[in-house]
Amino acid sequence: MSNDLDTVFAALADPTRRAILAMLLEDDMAVTDVADPFEMSLAAISKHLIILTKAGLISQEKRGRVKWCKLEPDALRAASVWMQGFGQFEPVNLDAFERFLEVELPVTDDP
Amino acid sequence: MSNDLDTVFAALADPTRRAILAMLLEDDMAVTDVADPFEMSLAAISKHLIILTKAGLISQEKRGRVKWCKLEPDALRAASVWMQGFGQFEPVNLDAFERFLEVELPVTDDP
DNA sequence: CGCATATTCAACCAAATGGTTGACCAAAAC
DNA sequence: GTTTTGGTCAACCATTTGGTTGAATATGCG
Q1: Chain D: nucleotides under 7 Å from a protein CB?
Q2: Separation CA B93–CA B110 (nearest Å)
Q3: Per the count of CB atoms within 10 A, which of A19, A41, A101, B67 is most buried?
Q4: Do the chains contact at B5 and A14, CB–CB below 8 Å?
């Protein structure tokens, strides 16, 4: 039984894609600008964006020759709901979130 | 073991592994009993359990010839925290996040 | 128009993933 | 002891993944 959690979690499993999501958290971006800080080819980033789109994590809208990418947090929320099934979480740990921001957000260092 | 988001999300991306986690939510289980409801081989389930262990989502303890599997929600918690960053706020705002925590998620003791 | 820019497509590649079998080892049961 | 049970290991296989290039397709600009 393959549901959309498969694609959402698989999309989140790649550090490049998580870095892209972090970038889109700040603002909508064109594909070329998303690709800019990464060392890989534009085609590779384009593929990552397609994966994120199929997972519903972002949406892409073409205006002119520029395709704009926009964060769509609803899919993340769905995954989060799945996790609530494991309801034994302690409340969200702020320290962990801050550590995430320090480690994950500087996308220029991303492998 | 590792709380790396890569391995945690990759582990969660497989429906068999999510089903295993759901089973372990009810109680600790031996490897053979985990494998029982699935149609695949015991070796395949054993591999899935190793992946879950490496992701830190479960732990395995051998008592006698039986290896017991136990849910370890810490890694899930880390992933959940990561997702909260996207689900709740448009621009990441730590102050707002902290305020949100105080209002919406009052700290309680370990359940 | 002619050319640059933005993005994808197609073919290819190496490595990882998810599964299978059969041999193997340790612990328990008879 | 011998056999059964619990579980992993090793080798293999098919498919997917993440990346590369180079060509192709639009769109905008001078």
Answers
A1: 5-10, 17-23, 26-28
A2: 27
A3: A19
A4: no
A4-105 carries CATH number 1.10.10.10: yes
Q: Residue B10 and residue A9: Cβ atoms within 8 Å?
A: yes
Number of H helices, E strands in chain B: 6, 3
CATH 1.10.10.10 fits B5-73, yes or no: yes
Instruction: Report DSSP letters for A5-48, one per residue.
Output: HHHHHHHHT-HHHHHHHHHHHH--EEHHHHHTTSSS-HHHHHHH
By Cβ distance, the residue of B6, B10, B85 closest to A97 is B85
How many contacts (CB atoms, under 8 Å) link A and B? 111
Domain ranges of chain B: 5-73, 75-104
Helix axes B5-12, B15-26, angle to 10 degrees: 90
In tens, the pLDDT along B5-43 reads 899 999 999 999 999 999 998 899 999 999 999 999 999
Strand D contact at CB of residue A13, distance < 7 A? yes
Distance between the alpha carbon (CA) of B60 and the C1' atom of D4, Å: 24
pLDDT tier for residue B80 given thresholds of 50, 70 and 90: confident
Confidence of residue B84 (pLDDT cuts 50, 70, 90): confident
| List of chain B residues whose C-beta atoms are within 8 Å of the C-beta of residue A90 | 77, 108, 110-111
